[in-house]
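Workshop exercise sheet. Pairs work together: one partner reads the sequence aloud, the other fills in the structure field after running the prediction. Swap roles for the next sheet.
Pair: D.N. / O.F.
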Amino acid sequence: DEVGLWEQMSFAAFLQKHWADNQVSCTVTFDVEKEGDQLESALEYFQYQLKGISFLPRIKSGAYAQMPYEAISEAQYRDEIKRLKRVDFAKKTCAVRAVEEVPDKFCDS
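Structure field:
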């Protein structure tokens, strides 16, 4: 909630230019009341700097039922952490398939 629309888009453009060859995946959250009318201007400004961008309005009740992320209090966070169980990676809990080697096709070097 603390980072505005323009700063998020600037950061995405920076990453697109200096870090990624492919499209940077970025969902920009914005305050509908304060920044909603700036979407068109922001898209025009960044049109040649971003390959793609998603927008998600910040609405207290959530924009839709299963939000990708939501703000929680520290107390809620601590309650959720208590429910986590330690993972034992030494146990074989899933089937492990043998990898079958496939010779290269169409390669002469």
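Discussion prompt: The radius of gyration is 22 Å. What would you look at next?
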